[in-house]
Amino acid sequence: MNLPESEEIQTLEQLESLFGEVGAPSLQKEVNFLHPVYQRWIQASPFLVLATRGPGGLDASPRGDPAGLVHVQDARTLLLPERRGNNRIDSLRNILHHPQVGLLFLVPGVNETLRVNGTARILAGPELLERFALQARPPKCILEITVETAFFQCGRAMIRSGLWQQNEPASVPTAGEMLQAVTGGVIKGQEYDVALPARQKETLY
């Protein structure tokens, strides 16, 4: 059911009237390079979400490695290895069409996050790939990200969610249950779930 149009915010003026003025720290924390304090943050992060856009629409997908998954090449350049995955390559397809990317870095137990926006290109030189090998397996390619803006995000969203305070995992459908549901039973969920841990371990890199 659609809400009445009178309840829809349609102008910037209407939108800004819902919120207070931006605090000075919220503006001052944004810089157009990787400040050393932001570099330290990135080097401590084992997980990020990569956002891209292309002809097929938007994409946001996870990336993970041991802490320091992204290499800080210099104050304006990041190198992100692209590891083995499901071969959909949605993010990479998007980058070929539109190089703008957004990265959201997380550190377990820390409520603040770090945001980086910039442009990316895809590199696949053998020497570069070998430089980022893990478990003797190089990545498929490297994203070279030229930084345009960097700033940290306050921890309110994490605090509200209680993300790092949850001791027990939430009860959610398993990967097999989701696949069985969306494929109408073509994929058998229980069989998929039984085989998944070994398959993930064997194909991690």
What would the principal axes of the Cα set say about the shape?
globular
Q: Major beta sheet, specifics? A: 7 strands, antiparallel
How much helical structure, as a percent, in the residues? Answer: 25-40%
Strand order of the largest sheet: 2-1-5-6-7-4-3
Give the CATH superfamily of the largest domain.
Electron Transport, Fmn-binding Protein, Chain A
Number of DSSP helical runs: 8
Mean pLDDT: 91
From the alpha carbons, calculate the radius of gyration and give it in angstroms: 20 Å
CATH-defined fold name of the largest domain: Pnp Oxidase, Chain A
Q: Which band does the percent of strand residues land in?
A: 25-35%
Secondary structure category: alpha+beta
Domain Pyridoxamine 5'-phosphate oxidase N-terminal: 36-154
Protein name: Pyridoxamine 5'-phosphate oxidase family protein
Organism: Deinococcus antarcticus
